[in-house]
């Protein structure tokens, strides 16, 4: 997906890397940076040659996408909500699932992963910033790997705050940070909920369990009381919706525990297709992108209401 990054002419490229056009052009020529002959530069290659400093800082919003059941649409909503938000905002997607589904969509080879950045049980650490991959304009990814599955037992008090600590130095570089959570309750999920400001719960409308929703609600309440009073529920998003008539009854059941988004995510074949092709949704199906743009808008409205 590297070819998705922005194209710049020399002047824009110089500005992007914070150099004068003269100094930039000289450097581009001497380092033979791709584009030095044509005067057309690509964001990804510029990032390889220059340390591009974030020149803005944001009051970032961290949103955990969680539901302890698998197959509810956590990864799907994380990906395409992030993609929709990245059209206007700087977005970081944190793959926080040992299954690393989101990571595998973007990266073919093994790369350093989030577990290398946590310092869990004295493990050698890198900074989170050093492992971030840019996957599209305004859209960065923290890769995961199976090793994250080792984060099971809290040995020290701090072990609940490993993700929070790792994200702190970079959170102001992003307007939205989306955490794709694992299908489990436990230390991995608790780390996500302790560092998040908001939670969004995807719920698959065809086969759904009210008991599962009750359990998640209990976990969230516990974290809100004991460890993270900032944590707010954005609500549940009905996924794979196919126009079921029984929907209002279903939404009623869910509303006992969570507010329900007005926007639903429709069941669309283009979603698994985009994932199979390892492509951004916008390259496959613009009408489904619209669905996620609506969701992004409602997320932004809900955050705005919560803040004021
Ligand atoms: N709205 C949708 N329309 C069609 N397929 C979907 C939709 N949402 C999710 N899927 C498919 O369902 C499967 C599970 O979704 P996923 O996002 O991986 O769930 P989770 O991360 O909660 O385990 C994936 O194969 C995904 O492509
Ligand atoms: Mg997933």
Could you characterize the architecture of this molecule?
- The chain has 11 helices and 9 strands.
- It has 308 residues and is α/β, with parallel strands linked by helices.
- The chain has 2 domains: 48 residues, no CATH class; 247 residues, P-loop containing nucleotide triphosphate hydrolases (Rossmann fold), CATH 3.40.50.
- The strands form 2 sheets. The chain has a 7-stranded mixed beta sheet with strand order 5-6-4-7-3-8-9, with helices on both faces. A two-stranded antiparallel sheet has the order 1-2.
- Helix 8 links the parallel strand 8 and strand 9.
- The radius of gyration is 20 Å and the shape is globular.
- The two termini are 38 Å apart.
- The structure holds adenosine-5'-diphosphate and magnesium ion.
- Adenosine-5'-diphosphate binds next to helix 4 and helix 10.
- It comes from Leptospira idonii.
Quick synopsis:
This is Chromosome partitioning protein ParA. By secondary structure, the protein is an alpha/beta fold.
What's the N-to-C terminus distance?
Answer: 38 Å
Beta-strand proportion: 5-15%
| Number of DSSP strand runs | 9
Give unreliable regions as ranges: none
State the fourth-level CATH superfamily of the largest domain: P-loop containing nucleotide triphosphate hydrolases
Number of helices: 11
Query: What class do helices, strands and sheet pairing give?
Result: alpha/beta
**Ligand names:** adenosine-5'-diphosphate, magnesium ion
How many structural domains can be distinguished in the coordinates? Answer: 2
Mean pLDDT: 92
CATH top level assignment of the largest domain:
Alpha Beta
Share of helix among residues? Answer: 25-40%
Strand order of the largest sheet: 5-6-4-7-3-8-9
Q: What is the C-alpha radius of gyration, as a whole number of Å?
A: 20 Å
- Describe the sheet with the most strands: 7 strands, mixed
CATH level-two architecture of the largest domain: 3-Layer(aba) Sandwich
Order of helices and strands: EHHEHEHEHEEHEHEHEHHH
Envelope shape = globular
